[in-house]
Amino acid sequence: MTLSASHPLMDGRTADSPLIAAYRGKTPSRRPVWFMRQAGRSLPEYRKVREGIGMLESCLLPELASEITLQPVRRHDVDAGIFFSDIVIPLKLAGVDVDIVPGVGPVLGTPVRTAADVASLPELTDESLAPIREAVALTVAQLGSTPLIGFAGAPFTLAAYMVEGKPSRDHLGPRTMMHADPETWQALTDWAADASGKFLRAQLEAGASAGQLFDSWAGSLGLADYTAKVAPASARALDHVRGLGAPLIHFGTGTSELLGAMRDVGVDVVGVDYRLPLDEANRRLGGTVALQGNIDPALLEAPWPVLEAHVRQVLEAGSAAPGHVVNLGHGVPPETNPEVLTRVVELIHSVEP
Ligand code: 1CP
Predict the structure, then answer these.
(1) φ, ψ for residue 80 (rounded to 5)?
(2) Percentage with pLDDT > 90 across the chain
(3) pTM
(4) What pLDDT is recorded for position 217?
C-alpha cells in the first residue's frame, strides 16, 4: 500500500515542505501554520462563490470545492490547504438522507437509533467517491509545493450526529447507546469508521499529503469510555490509510485528558485545543509526537498587542514538542476579520523556526 510515484508527497513537491517537516519532527524552513475552517464564511470570496449553492452541493462540485480550498491559501500564505468538504459527505455519498442546514449544521432525515437502523445503512462504494478524487486532483495541480491536508470525521463525532439526528450539546444519545445497546453501538461505529476511512483514503490517494481525523466532540467522554467504546473504531478508520506514508493527525476539543489515548490509536501528530498550553500537552504525551495548535480563536477579536503576545506564547510553548504546526484551538469563527488571520501568519513566519 503506497502512494503513486506522481503523488505530491512522492515526487518531491511536498515532502520537504515546512508542514510535512514539522509533522515528521524535522526542523522546518519556517514555522508552518494553517487554520481549521480557513475556508468558509470569514472570506468574502467564499460567500460570493457559494451564493445560491447548498453546502453539500458545493462540496460535490469538484471545480467549486477546489476553488474554495485554494482561496485561503492564496489570501493568507498559509502552509497547507485543507480540503473543502464536510465530515458528513461520506454519509451523503453512501445515500444517507442528510443535509447541512444553514445556521444549524448536519441534520438527518431519520436518526439512526436501533439495530435495524444500523443494519439498513447503505455501504459507501469507492465509485461514489469520484467527485472527491476529482476535486483533490484539481486542487493539488494548483497547489504546487504547498501540501493539501485531507480529513474525515472520527466515528464518535459522526455517530453523535447520526444518533441525535442533528447537532447537540451533551451527546446524550450516543453516550447512552454505547452502554445501553453496546452491539448496536459497535455496529454503528464500525460503519462510520469504514465510511470515514474510505473518504480519507480517496483524498490521500488523489493527492493529499497528510490526513486529519476530526473527533470534535470526543471531549464529552471520560477516558474509560473513550478508550473502551471509541478509540478502537477510530483506529479502524485509520487502518484504511496506514502505511501510505502520509502523516496522520488526530484532533478533538475538550480532550486534555484524552491526549495519550488519542495518540495511541496510531497517529504522528496530536491536535490540541485552546484549553491546555502546548508545553503541558507535550509533557503529558512524553515528547512522543508532534503537536498542532493552539491559538485561542476568541483572541482573534482582541487588540493586536494582546493577540500578538498570545501567538508568541503559543510559539514558545510549542517549541517544547518534537514538531509544531501552528493552528487555532478550534475553527475560525465566521465573524473573523480575514486581515487579522493574514497578519497572524506573517507574525508566525517572522519567528525563527
Ligand atoms: O454553509 C456553510 O458555509 C456552512 C458551514 C460549514 C463549513 C464551511 C459546514 C457545516 N461545514 C463546513 C466545511 C468543513 N467542515 C470543513 C472544511 C474546510 C476548512 O476547515 O476550511 C471541515 C474540515 C469540516 C469538518 C466538520 N464538520 C467538523 C469537524 C471540525 C470542527 O469544526 O469541529 C464538524 C464537527 C462538522 C459538522 C458541521 N458541519 C457544518 C457545521 C456548522 C458543523 C458543526 C455543527 C455543530 O455545531 O454540531
Answers:
(1) -160, 150
(2) 99
(3) 0.97
(4) 97
